[in-house]
Design a protein that fits this description.
The chain is an alpha/beta fold and 425 residues long. It has 19 helices and eight strands. Strands 1-4-3-2-5-6 form a six-stranded mixed β-sheet. A two-stranded antiparallel sheet has the order 7-8. Strand 5, helix 2 and strand 6 form a beta-alpha-beta unit. The two termini are 55 Å apart. The N terminus is likely disordered.
């Protein structure tokens, strides 16, 4: 470790790795005050905090820390101490590195110094991690895990469906009109009992009734069993018997993956909704049309409960990706949809706007008028999501519930035509 002087202010950069982290401290003039390599354990964190204290870190004037990630134990412990932590995009760090060396040299110690200098020169251009409570962080963990489980379920479903198309069209036809398709408990239960078309053809109506009851169906069991039995008795093309049996074994393996993915998604959905309902902001968020417990939890997970995180509504809209981007140069001026955004928040925003069309007359009217002035479907929904984000910002700031009579007034068509957020999808 190398230490010289105790000037203030001090800036800290941490280049993290799996088993160790490189730390660098610089002063306001860019002079490196210290460098240190610590382990990824409690002893290493104690070394880091001791180094920061040695260079003037205190509760009133904590040393800001820059790091290339927003997750992990090191980040969680730094945030718990109350220090401002800045998660710097690795691409931005690579651009800053070129300012210090044209030879393109790179090392962990150099990257730590680059991170510290980013805060020294451009801290105002970067946003610190929000000061969210432990409660909100827990909701974020559950909401993101549930969203990942839904994506995993979709992938498992697609793999299974692709497999069944190769040799088992009967099961696809039997559940083609079902709301959840192969993800339904009925389809998965019958497929587990009959993983090949030959076995499906041997299923009796009585056996199908038992399987439907096992899947949890309580109404129309007789009619549904008759319908599925009729579908399984139709003529289909078949693979050779040995090949069909092998494909059946593979189908059983894929079905186990789908069952696990469905169970994970369902259990995490219940836990997410239950935890979200206990948060003070839940009532305000759920007052918006199109937001339920699960989608509301996803929104809260991404925007957090730190009211100082976004200085104004436009910052939140840009973060969500609903606000457009203008590229102007000379006589050229192009309005484009925003590509750099919080992808999870943008994904739930599309669902939010879509569902609100049937839940809110004002939202439907706003969407239809956007379509009238030339917006495509996606652009009109994005514009509606943009309006919702602005209203959500104001409601959360003042603790007020959504009021449609004030939120979505009818705008004149000429005002809509002049609105730059009308973007062709």
């Amino acid at each position: 470790m190398e230490i010289t002087g105790l000037p203030t202010p001090v800036f800290c950069g941490v280049d993290w790795a799996e088993d160790h982290h490189d730390v660098a401290l610089v002063d306001a003039g860019g002079k490196q005050l210290a460098k240190l390599r610590i382990g990824d354990d409690a002893a290493g964190f104690a070394q880091l905090t001791a180094l920061l204290v040695e260079h003037g870190d205190c509760a009133d004037e904590p040393v800001p820390v820059a790091i290339e990630t927003s997750r992990g134990l090191l980040v969680a412990c730094l945030r718990a101490t109350g220090r401002p932590v800045f998660a710097i995009n690795p691409l931005a760090v690579a651009r800053y590195r070129d300012r210090h060396s044209v030879a393109r040299k790179k090392s962990d110690a150099v990257d730590a110094a680059v991170l510290a200098n980013i805060l020294r020169t451009d801290m105002a251009a970067h946003r610190p991690l929000p000061a969210d409570s432990e409660f909100v962080q827990a909701i974020a963990v559950l909401a993101r895990a549930q969203q990942n489980a839904v994506w995993d379920r979709g992938q498992a479903h697609n793999r299974l469906r692709s497999q069944l198309r190769e040799f088992y069209p009967a099961i696809l036809e039997a559940f083609a009109q079902h709301k959840h398709g192969l993800c339904s408990r009925e389809a998965r239960t019958i497929l587990a009992a009959a993983p090949t078309p030959a076995k499906a053809a041997r299923l009796t109506v009585r056996r199908l009734q038992a399987l439907l009851k096992q899947a949890g169906r309580v109404r129309g069991i007789q009619a549904e069993a008759d319908r599925i039995h009729e579908v399984f008795q139709r003529d289909y093309l078949h693979q050779p018997p040995q090949v069909e049996a092998a494909l059946g074994r593979q189908t059983t393996a894929l079905l186990r993956q789908l069952n696990t993915a469905c169970q994970n998604a369902d259990e995490l959905e219940e836990a997410t909704a239950q935890t979200f309902e206990e948060h003070p902001d839940a009532q305000v968020i759920r007052s918006f049309p199109g937001l339920g417990s699960l989608t509301g939890a996803r929104v809260l997970a991404e925007i957090g409960a730190d009211r100082t995180r976004f200085a104004y509504a436009g910052a939140l809209k840009a973060y969500a990706g609903s606000a457009p981007v203008t590229q102007a140069s000379g006589k050229s001026c192009v309005v484009m949809s925003r590509k750099i955004k919080n992808q999870r928040l943008a994904a739930v925003g599309y669902v939010w706007a879509f569902v609100s069309l049937t839940k809110s007359p004002g939202a439907r009217t706003h969407y239809d008028r956007r379509r009238e002035v030339g917006d495509r479907h996606v652009a009109a929904q994005r514009n509606l999501f943009n309006r919702f984000m602005g209203m959500l910002f104001d409601c959360l700031q003042h603790g007020q519930l959504y009021d449609e009579t004030k939120a979505l007034p009818i705008q004149p068509l000429e005002d809509l035509l002049e609105d730059p957020s009308s973007i062709a999808a």
